[in-house]
Amino acid sequence: MLSTIADYTRLTQDMGKSLTQVATQPDVSRETDYFLSHIGNVKTIDDFLKDYRLYSYAMKAYGLSDMTYAKAFMRKVLTEGVANKDTFANKLTDTRYREFAAAFNFAALGSNATQTTQATTGTATHYVTQTMEQKAGDQNEGLRLALYFTRKASTITTAYQVLADKALTQVVQTALGLPSTISAADIDAQAKLITNKVKLSDFQDPAKVTKFVQRFAAMWDATQAQSDSSTNSALVLIGGASSASMDIDMLSKLQSIRLGK
Asked: Which Pfam families would you find in this protein's record (predicted)?
């Protein structure tokens, strides 16, 4: 039985407890202990990039694991910092690079960049959160996406920020019932479509974010159920009545989760 909404509710109703459970897992605790006990010794960008264990931990914490290999790119992000709108990180649509450069602000703080709360315990908190989402995704990709969107929603101010992030794009497209093939369309047209369908300022309201995520979760489960049914010939042959019942139940659920305008 599909349960993205139930799993999402279970994890988010006591987020502190959920994060603590992840933080105390041996592999997570071991990496966090290493990071917190060594990051203060890092005085330069070179020091940071040379210690792969520290650097990869930080990259994962800010959702940039897939860019860990791109050290020249990340060196530019760190070297220029975020002091003005013309820096490399600030010109990138993906705000994760800006967050990373702000957390490890060598450009402004020099050798003291790794002494801040943002660089130390702040990064550790991000790492635990990312790990929780990743582990959730191992069981249910829809749950990972729902948790990620909830965490990032308040930072969304333009449709282009959504389109610059594959996970955010997938959540929004799914919640709005848009086909993934729409991503091949002109970027400005996609942005206009999103702003016509969603009031982005609603993402500053936790209650409206929850309702949007609930709609996404229902749509995700409906899509997965449809996919599973279409690929199981035996189910198609003998499960017509139950499939119809599932469709009616899901439609009822979707109708109860309306987007706030």
From this structure: DUF1217
